[in-house]
Write a structure and sequence with these properties.
alpha+beta, Porin, 8-stranded antiparallel barrel, 2 helices, about 25% helix, about 45% strand, globular
Length: about 180
Amino acid sequence: MSFIIFLSSLVTLPAALANETNVLSHAWDTLTDNVSQTWNEPQHYDLYVPAITWHARFAYDKEKTDRYNERPWGIGFGQSRWDESGNWNGLYLMVFKDSYNKWEPIGGYGWEKTWRPLADENFHLGLGYTLGATARDNWNYIPIPVILPLASVGYGPATFQMTYIPGTYNNGNVYFAWLRFQF
């Protein structure tokens, strides 16, 4: 009986792999189309102002958090657009003071599914992701790829946007947020 199940799984495996390949191919095409359209047809230019870095106290020794910088002074610029579904797409470059008070650049593409739950269309909430690269002093400024979650709350051209950098004990587990102003 188990041999028959094994054979039937071999028969259906190519179809399952083809379907997975199609899904990945479609996701890649959607991503590259969104990046290209945001680059070539921006609707807005954005100013980014880093606001807060918070190291999750449950994941750090107190002596470490006492030494860390949680005021990420910096600035960033980008361009963005709202797609036909009302979702946000953005390309950005930002530089800020990291946990060790050293300059850290980051750049990439961000996407958020956006909801407008109130009668006032200016108020919006978003959930999504960012794909990009960063470089840190303590890693000799070698570019490091990042894939991080995004969340936001905004009104009109002003948005409070945030991410969480997961990690292990005494590493990562950082909430990072910034203000984004569209003009």
